[in-house]
Amino acid sequence: MMSLQDLTARLTAPRFLRWIVLPHLVFFIVAWFTDAVPLIAVLNSVDISLSVAVCIAFLPSALDAVFQERPADKAVFLTLGVFCGWEGNSLRSGWSLAWRALGMPEWFANTDITSYILFVIGAGALYHLLAPGALDEDVPPRRWIKIGAWVGIGIFLAIILTYVHDIETFVHGLAPPHDRAAVPAGFRDL
């Protein structure tokens, strides 16, 4: 068990402050002073650019992983997880950017392309889970893979229950006060 002193030392470590706290702080400051629409457009553009860069960097390794003759191992699954995860991310951000640029047509959200994007992202996540120990024997720890799997199952069941029960009021209440006007009054308005 971690002591309070160890926790305090970790939370105030320069790496944690530089890599986690500072970027989040900058984001929330920028978001506070910026309208959501242009911020989302800029962040989608940055996301697409970085995601495509990662896919290009991992493309030769992903092709080798798929077409090599040796049996699939943790490195193969990790490579495919990185490639598919970022491919799906770039597709999702590109689709979001196009959807917003076209005036958010309803049909855009309910297409086979949307389903395909979700499939690719899910495949990337599954490949990551099939690659424990690819970087180090304890990354990620097997115990945490089990915890993640159980939490994922719980979230999946909770989402399924939302289709059975009306949670519209709860979801509407999650919108920040300054963005409530942008939130549809009901799911029928989406």
- Give the overall shape: globular
Give the termini distance in whole angstroms: 47 Å
Task: Please indicate the count of domains.
Answer: 2
Count of β-strands: 0
Short account of what is shown:
By secondary structure, this protein is mainly alpha-helical. The chain has eight helices and no strands. It folds into two domains: 1-33; 35-189.
Structure description:
The chain is mainly alpha-helical. The protein folds into 2 domains: 1-33; 35-189. Helices cover 73% and strands 0% of the residues. The protein is built from 8 helices and no strands. The chain has helices at residues 4-11, 14-33, 36-67, 74-101, 106-109, 112-129, 142-164, 168-173. It is globular and about 50 Å long. The mean pLDDT is 82.
Features:
mainly alpha; 8 helices
Helix and strand topology:
Blueprint: H1 4-11, H2 14-33, H3 36-67, H4 74-101, H5 106-109, H6 112-129, H7 142-164, H8 168-173
